[in-house]
């Protein structure tokens, strides 16, 4: 028995003009919302409350060091030493459709237009709020674990790298991806459902890099389905049951199960270069099982949800036993690894290889500067001078055979480009060990790490029957490929930033943490060098929010294009309004709802909200026009189980109004469509 608490809070942030974080494509800027993003928190404590563990899974691309340090600072001021570096795991789901700009290292500023304070604040405050809610709702309860295989939901996107691993090792596994889902079920002492955490290795990239709507992708859709089912009658994002679908060793795992094909000719480009005869690598794209990215997201998400539901219903193996946690900061650019009794190797200063710029079959190349641009970009000019620095011979030699594109470890202006100080962390709950890793381990890297940690626990007489990897935790350090995969330098290897021995270093470090937990000596672990927390001003290229205008003889929220009078289920109701910049709303409130779908109730002669902007059935598009004007288009993709009746769609926004030369205020407004019938 434990004390358990669960919480969910909004962490969406601005849904317009902000680059989305994941594909590193500067063109992929948000222009609306498909679903909200949430932070989901789970607290486990002993009955005497002597020890606590916090696990957070947030619908964001990855955790950043800045987010983690700011969250821990806030927790310390609220709760003292209750929630600390060692017992709080912050993990990102790795959706590629969330707002960027929440990093303190320069490399990540490039594609996200600097540091974007509203994004950072939304994530930090959302995570803290979800922990607050879990903290305030602690009750006695029980934990159950279950595991099972998820089919038809992933492919290995670098199969040629995977084949470099020794045949003897590959022969132990039936697949080149990890198909196993591990599911932790939480109930209170009366058996009432509280929530669940699922760990499964797949990239949330069913939504591709042409998408401009903020959303939580396939794993977010799985959370949505589970929570809607358990929180009956509630709108999305409401209700007490919390279902987290967390990331794992997804480094080389894609949900785009049809595999890679040339966009121009339709032929397969499943080759070591992922290249097409015409158009090269930029034409090679993998697609999902659906007819478009929205359908693919739902198919993969539903597969993941269905397996979790089955595992949840049947979970009978109880988790009991003490809680423990171990954490260290490590300078990953300078770790000496003992491969065996006679042989030591070292990690390197961070650097990215040429293939990093090529991207993957899920999202091709990032850094395509446009030609013929007559205006310089002050941001790039400052950085260009920095880019010309050549990697040192030492770094070149250390990273062999990687040809270095960006020697980020030797680039320090205006701030360091990549982290040196990285978190390694393990928490254990009875027979479950959660390894919190700072990046994207490939399938085989994850298998080696889990096995090494399991062996360490076993050899000290403290077996842990379940060892799971939680991905994208605490700080982002790109990919971790095996030494063998590193030799062929596909994207994952080129993005293994601390050199060919990165994985061996992590295995050595995590074995040390496991040993400390098994032998009850965590208090003797050295903390390691503390990471820097840079105070960064407003370094951003986001356009300033200025006064807005409605077209002549119109006002904000007026309908420009009306709904039809009647729709059938399965159809799409659509209405266009005079709009305003959605960023005005995000700067005003932490959780703004941009739309409602409402049904008319005859008996009470009133309107009832049946959907909001967190629903996967609604889409909110914002289009910026000229001279301070913009439009908003709202779609409702009417589900087949919709009750026939009279409906309307409402739009809720804020516009900037100029009061004087130097002063603007933000004014809320709303608009409503005509009524329409659903048959």
TrEMBL record:
Cofactor names: Zn(2+)
Key words, A-Z: Hydrolase, Lipid metabolism, Metal-binding, Sphingolipid metabolism, Zinc
Catalytic activity: an N-acylsphing-4-enine + H2O = sphing-4-enine + a fatty acid
Record-listed Zn(2+) binding positions: 94, 203, 440, 479
All copies of domain Neutral/alkaline non-lysosomal ceramidase C-terminal, residue ranges: 511-678
InterPro entries per UniProt: Ceramidase_alk (IPR006823), NCDase_C_sf (IPR038445), NEUT/ALK_ceramidase_C (IPR031331), NEUT/ALK_ceramidase_N (IPR031329)
EC numbers, comma separated: 3.5.1.23
One GO term (biological process): sphingosine biosynthetic process
UniProt family annotation: Belongs to the neutral ceramidase family.
Protein name: Neutral ceramidase
